[in-house]
Amino acid sequence: DPPAAAPAGVSAAPCVPLFPDAADRSLPVQVDFYKVLGAEPHFLSDGVRRAFEARAAKPPQYGYSTDTLVGRRQILQLAHDTLTNQSSRTEYDRALSEDRDAALTLDVAWDKVPGVLCALQEAGEAQAVLAIGEHLLEDRPPKRFKQDVVLAMALAYVDISRDAMAASPPDVIRCCEVLERALKLLQEDGAINLAPGLLSQIDETLEEITPRCVLELLALPLDEKHQIERQEGLRGVRNILWSVGRGGIATVGGGFSREAYMNEAFLQMTSAEQMDFFSKTPNSIPPEWFEIYSVALANVAQAIVSKRPELIMMADDLFEQLQKFNIGSQYAYDNEMDLALERALCSLLVGDISNCRIWLAIDNESSAHRDPKIVEFIVNNSTIDQQENDLLPGLCKLLETWLVSEVFPRSRDTRGMQFTLGDYYDDPKVLSYLEMMEGGGASHLAAAAAIAKLGAQATAALGTVKSSAVQAFNKIFPLIEQLDRSAMENPNDGLEEPVSKFDQKNIMGFDIHDSKNAALKIVCASALFALLTVIGLKYLPRNKVLPAIRSEHESMTVANVVDSVDDEPIQIPRMDAKLAEDIVRKWQSIKTKALGSDHSVESLQEVLDGNMLKVWTDRAAEIGRKGWFWDYTLSDVAIDSITVSLDGRRATVEATIEEAGQLIDATDPKNNDSYDTKYTTRYEMTFTGLGGWKITEGAVLKSS
């Protein structure tokens, strides 16, 4: 091709008319020609041309006006003409090295600014698009102009949301914040009809990740600095949990069941916040079994923290309600033995040792209430003699271990708390309350004094209870493992059923042609991956563990356990950092073969597929026709992030690569070229069955 004429004044002045035929009014905008084309400084003219053709062939998916699309094409053309002409490119590169800001600044005609914003957004310049867009909107532009600006800004916000979810750890709060801004822009500034699909996708994405965002807000530190954000999180929990439940929809956005989400939320709330949530829940929302049980434990935790034994009595009342009424659950909690341990330990916390022994049936070997494993635990932690309360040390150890391993971990303010039984039983407020309970031959004060004496030298804290005691305590609950497994299999717990629901909605299947416009796809993948990880955390089944205590002669039936979803499951290698690095290294090795002196083009299909295979096959063939070859040296590969689809068959991998390359033309050395660079790239990978994992798309994000 004949060399294009160099654009006038590329380096002469920072403000150069970009479109001479445009209106007189203009706006200075910084435009990096390399970035808008998706090219790199080391690209030859042929590579720049291919980058231009790739951008030009894939217009934006959403509804920009014709004028904006023309403006986009013009800025791409200008960048192409500048960088494919040796003279103008040399001058442009020199200007960049001398005064980068001045060289990048172009005076863009006012009516062409939306087209330039469109190109900048595609190039990943989200912050620049937002800054320019906000300035333009302040000027009250015409409707069509404004809609194009708003659309570019909304897509820029989506790009930022993608980056937030790609961070380690994902910044879900930031993601929600910018997506809400994008949604507000589209709804309030007249761009709804331009991109209804984008609006719908943002709305659906927010619906999926808002529950996780609320959990992140709750997880912020319990200090004054974060008080406003945590209050927002508490309001969010109410909005979410009060809109689902019995008689309504069964799941929260993101695939949580109401039960699973409440467990996660409570883990990030203090015991007082849990109690407040329960007390303010509207009467129109009947409490479920797990909800009452969780709040009963919160009352116990708060009683210890605030030294208020009256809260122990409230907790005991809640446990009693659960014994009397089999409140809706798939588990058959219809036997009062289910909560015998909880009620026994509540009795012990108010100094009623006699009632504690009755609940545990310690003195009645024939009682159906007696659980031999609990008795064994108590005996093993006691010193046996002829005294009436010779099992008190074992009872205290049982109480201590229950509080530390089961009660305290459920609340932010008690998790990891330093605790001694003596601190509680020797407190004046506790003693005053126990004194009021005296009567009927029971001496609550005497019991408290005895327990305080026992606990004076024994400090219990999360992680400091002897492992042998915890292990022995866990043996009291032979059905824990079975319940944990059943909870993961049961569709009502929000795991299997929501996953299939996600597939039906095709959340991952947005028809987005350009990789930079695939932000929502990445956001959803990251969010759902994070959410599914959260659902599997160890505390989720705990609300069913303690109520599941039964005597060795009883059994528990778990209904509605789903069968395996797949009769013939396909063994897909799990995409992780090691596998991703292996694939990237394999690709770099095969690239050397295909574009090297051997020109082994057929080897590309070993690691590439789809569009990536086509692009590199054409590129390798062209290099071969010209008699050129590349010699690559790979220095390092680092996997930055991995996002895996719900079905495990697709993954987005971002990697940082250090690579040197040398282009060799044996017939004409003046075509020789070389580079040594570090760049970040994104690969779309797909599991292809017998062919294993292959790269189907690739894009360089940045280089240094």
Automatic annotation (TrEMBL):
GO terms for biological process: chloroplast fission. Residues 580-696 form the Plastid division protein CDP1-like IMS domain. InterPro entries: CDP1-like_a_solenoid_1, CDP1-like_a_solenoid_2, CDP1-like_IMS, CPD1-like, J_dom_sf. Pfam families: ARC6 (PF23468), ARC6-like_IMS (PF13355), Arm_PDR (PF25515). Residues 107-247 form the Plastid division protein CDP1-like 1st alpha solenoid domain. GO terms for cellular component: chloroplast inner membrane. Residues 268-456 form the Plastid division protein CDP1-like 2nd alpha solenoid domain. It comes from the Eukaryota. PANTHER family: PLASTID DIVISION PROTEIN CDP1, CHLOROPLASTIC-RELATED, PROTEIN ACCUMULATION AND REPLICATION OF CHLOROPLASTS 6, CHLOROPLASTIC. This is Uncharacterized protein. It comes from Aegilops tauschii subsp. strangulata.
